[in-house]
Design brief:
The complex is a heterodimer. By secondary structure, chain A is an alpha/beta fold. Chain A is 37% helix and 28% strand. In chain A, strands 6-7-8-3-9-10 form a six-stranded mixed β-sheet, sandwiched between helices. A four-stranded antiparallel β-sheet of chain A has the order 2-1-4-5, covered by helices on one side. The longest helix of chain A is centred in the middle third of the chain and has 16 residues. Chain A starts with a strand and ends with a helix. By secondary structure, chain B is mainly α. Chain B has two domains: 261 residues, no CATH class; 101 residues, 3-Layer(aba) Sandwich (D-Maltodextrin-Binding Protein, domain 2). Chain B is built from 15 helices and four strands. A four-stranded mixed β-sheet of chain B has the order 2-1-3-4, with helices on both faces. In chain B, helix 10 runs antiparallel to helix 13 and helix 13 packs antiparallel against helix 14. The radius of gyration of chain B is 31 Å and the shape is elongated. The chains are: A alpha/beta, B mainly alpha. Chains A and B meet through helix 2 and helix 3 of A and helix 1 and helix 8 of B.
Chain lengths: 308, 402
Amino acid sequence: MLRVRGLTKRYGPLLALDDVGFDVPRGEIVGFLGPNGSGKTTTMRAIMRLVSLDAGDVSWDGVPVDAGTRQHFGYMPAERGMYPRMKLRNHLAYYGELSGLSPESAGAAADRWLERLGLADRAEDTIQSLSSGNQQRVQLALALLNEPDLLVLDEPFSGLDPVAVEMLSDILREQVDRGAALLLSSHQLDLVADVCSAVVIVDRGRIVLRGDVAALRAASPTRYVEVEFADAVAWNPGRPSDVSAGGRRHRIAVEAGSDADRLIEEARSLGPVVGYSFLPPDLSEVFLGVVGRATLDDPEHERAEVAR
Amino acid sequence: MNDGRPSDATSVVRLVARREVIERLRARSFAVATGLLVVVIIAIGVISRLGGDGGDDAIEVATAGELPIGFEDMSGQTAGLFERTVEITGRDDAAAARAAVEDGDADVAVIGDRGEVVFDDGIDEEVLAILQQAWANAQVQQALGDAGLDEQQVRAALTTTPLEPVTIDGEEDSDEGLAILTGTLAGILLFISLQTFGTYVLTGVVEEKATAVVELLLVRARGSQMLAGKVIGIGIAALLQFALAIVAALVSLAISDVEVPGEIWAALPITLVWFIGGYALYSTLFALAGSLVSRQEDAQAAAMPIMSVLLLAYVMVFTFGSDPESTASTVMSILPPIAPLLMPLRMAAGAASVIEVLVALVLLAAAILAAWAATGRIYEQVLLRRGTRISWRDAASLIRRT
């Protein structure tokens, strides 16, 4: 299990990480969420020992992470990077050897992943000749070559088409099924809800929420009643509501303990109802609830992040 | 599923170095540069061979009319003093002899009854001197014979010993000039090599930072290991190119028929030692310069201070090389950034004492270690700081901080 405790990092006047702590158990995918500049990348770099911390510690199975333990981690940095003129297979085999594999195992792992990612026929092509989507697949393979105990993936889904997302999700599930622990950051909250069992949400370097995805949703004080009418209706339920589908679909926020039946009855009186649901907020609503619009649109904070 | 192999420092350095060698040899630019070098070196040999035909060792002389007896022997002997030979062909008359010169069949014509030596265009002073000497000797020989001396007496009278040239400072010949020339050539070659391979290191480091691949590497290797692997790998590629150039030079020399003075061969291993030392110092500093920028466009600007020092060292070869014994030359040749270029020249000229060479080597080794330590401290901290160029002053402050 990965244990992160009390991570604190200052960049001049900016407190990039403020007492960040969470766990990533084996066999679980933990989503790491937060607005741009909230400290996700710095935290992931800290786990990989790429930044010097002002305070805090990172341990794996109870042992502080050092260069030796790190050899058993797999890392996909936010900034993708490979040698553009190296051939695909050579690149994978080289990194495999750097990751501690013997030349034979590194070659075998390279072939296995090229096959798995559908890139076997491109083995002798250069990295720069690949599309960006394919480059990202190779980048993922680099993180997986040594069958790591812990995977730290910074934005693995960004820029992927739905087919590639599906393939990546399958691969990630396989990895945790064989016992790896996995931490991934993403802005695609629907994907995170789909793939991750738990999430950690950071904002301005502080953890604002963490826990099981279903539990976090259930813990929200808000529920949503969604009613779909056969025809467009005008309805003012006296609460905040979203109207979509040309006035046919209405989504109304209510308190968790409140009586939804009364609202649905009110809806029936307005016209024929095709369907309705009563659900906790989805992950993006939970996220926006804790992070708030103010941070998302705070240009100062983002600039500070970029300036580093 | 690591194979239980700890990625110890040497195996990481070896892996990084191996990649550098393989990728460098695979790169078209490297192949083109090496090929060009080989072609140019061999072409020099071919050209000097072809050019050599005009000033051939044999002087072809067309003769006409009556010549002093023994002229042919005498001109052969005299030409021998100049390490040349003479081929004499008799022609029917003066006009035919002149025509031979005009047509290029002969280098020169000697018209006996008129006492003329005819050149085509311009007088070759060496040929003229040989023929004058032979003519005079033959005339003297004939006169002595006419005066009644027998053949033996004539020969005794004509046996002379040529003057031996000596210089005021006691040197028998102009070896020092040759040594300085050799040393200067070595300095030029060293400068070109250090600049070329330093630039390879510079752009290689910038590439890793610009493409962000460095972040992947830094979770597997320490910055100092990556630095060592890169410098060693490119250094091996440099030595391979150097070896090819030597082979090309041998081929070139075989083609051109030029004899190479032993001094040049003697200078070769020494030059190699200084190249390795100079390369270790400069390439480390070039790597540091590369780690400060995130774009290839900024690389030259960041490397400017290093390039300036290298250029300064190059200028020193010409400024102080002509006077390798002077105090200024001695001092300059001991300074680590200049020593790799200037010291080989002073050694070739025999102007450097053993102590001076040792002091220069020790200082150079110290400078390499200092550059290495400083770069090792800065390298890892700046490689992940992408964006605007990091100034040398900021980089220096990182040494103090850690």
